[in-house]
Each structure stands twice: as C-alpha cells, then as structure tokens.
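User: Second chain of the day. Same drill as before.
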Amino acid sequence: MPGNSLLLVCLAMAVCGTAIVTAQDDETVVRDTPGDFDGDGMADRGHWKSDGSWELDLAANGFGEMDVRLTGCGDRSMAAEIGDVDKDGKSDLRLRVSATDALVDLAANGFGRWDKHEVATPQASQRVRKLLGEKTVKLLENADRVIPFQLTLPKFDVVEADGSSDTDVPDTESNPSTETEGAPVQSDGSTEDDSTSGATSDARTETVTINGVAASLTGQALNEAERSLLRSLLLSDTSFVFGVQKRRPFVATHAFRLTHRKESVDVVVDTSGAMLMVVHGEHRVTLNCDLALGRLQLLLARIQPDPKPDSSADKESDPCAE
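Assistant: Same format as last time:
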C-alpha cells in the first residue's frame, strides 16, 4: 500500500504539472525591451507583448505613461529584439519573424512602419515557383510598386423556411478557378473597369475590381521592406500547405496589386480561411497559407486600417454551415 500511495502521488503531481505548463502557455508573453529610443543618452523603458502590441516609455518626460503605442507587431511565435541598426545613436525595433527573417522599424523616421526586411538565408521555392509559372514569378520578383486594397465582402442569400430567398446572387468566390462574368480580362489581369486603376495612394475613395470583387484603396504603397516581406512570403516553400483542399469557399478580404512596367499581378487574400490566390491574367493559383498567416497579418496590421464594423454581418448566413 505505501508503494501504491507513492505512485498515486507521483501521478497526481505529473498531471498537475502538465496542467500548469499548459495554462502558462496560453497566457500572453511579455518581454521587456529597454533602450534609448530618442537618442538623448537616457535609458528608456519598453515592453513587447505576444498579442502584437509594443509600447515605449521615454525617460525625457518622466516615466509613467507610454509615449509610443504600436499594434500589429507579431505573435507568440516571434521574438522582439532591440538594436541600433542604422548606427544613428537611437535604438531601433527588430522583430524576429523566423530563424532567417527579421523586420526592422527604425527610430530615425518615427516608429509605426517596417523599414527593413532582413533575410539571412533566402529559401529556394521550387514547388511554389512551378505552380505559379515562370512569368508570374518574374513579375513578383521585379514588381516595383505594390498597392494594398480592402475588398467588399460578398453578400450571401438568406434562405427562408419555404426554400425561397430574397435575392439570387451567384457565388463567384466559391470556385476561384472560374472566370467572373462582366468586363473582359485584359492581358495584365485587370478588367476594362480597372485598367486605369493606377491606384495612387492619395485616391483613398477610388474603387477598382480585383478578381470580380469591388476593392477600395485603403493604404499607402508598400515600401522596400514590405515588398521584400511579401515576396518572401509568396515564394517561400515552407509557408504553404500542399495537397489539402479546404472545405470552405474562398472569401476575399484584402488584396495586393503588384505592378512592373505595364504588367500587374493581384495577390488576393482570404484572412479567415488563411488562403491566397495569385491572379495573373487568366492564370489563377490558390495556396493554403496557414503557416504564413502570421507574417501576412504583419503587413495588413501595419499598413491598412482596421475595417469598419458592419452591422449587417450578424444577419448574414455562414457560408460554411451548409
């Protein structure tokens, strides 16, 4: 009996210990990130949280209230680092995205946007490149202008008890490989309606059509660091899950239009389903990006504003419920 009692005690301790570790893993990770962020020679306070927030408290005006509040700075799979990257005497913010990738937000031009994308070892992506095709990959690599868009979510019919519906709107997103009706597709992947959508960052109210969905310009053109991150995300073989078809329609929420000279390619994003669709002319490739969603959200969170709440969203049916 004493031996059995001891065994039960050990088992109970093991179970409780596992539960404690799990509970700790579910909590938000907080990391102190002290530095001299304004270059005045005094040590400033800072801390990063795994929910994507980064706050800095400068010593110049006394400690107590945060002077800089940032959001969209990663998740618990990433790590926050501090260092003077450009050697200007001010501490810069570096977010370690993976073992080979890091993003840098320089203090010199104010915090709030990634300025550099550091890639230690570029990854060969033969499988993704083969799916996308040589022409599409070449355009993705050479694109010198990338504009972010927010797409209008499609409306779904509400089916009544008698089987009737209020409207009869075809679901153009349920089959991403099907061409959408309407304006003919041009050689650059755009339609006649959006062929003039050079989409300057000042025309915030301008709307275009991307893959048959109305899109509105909601952010500035990506800078060099952000373009580099997007290229790495699209052409990284380890970012995607192959051979898995998701049982849900592709519901586009955001898009990036990449242009080089007179050609363009659209990268359409389904954030809820963690899927990407690369559209180049009549060529469409859908990729499952579950493993790359965190990096993708770094771009969306830091460039595009949060979408306005839609009061009608609660009235829409769930497309996955059927």
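The CA atoms of residues 16 and 22 lie 10 Å apart.

User: Great, on to the next one.
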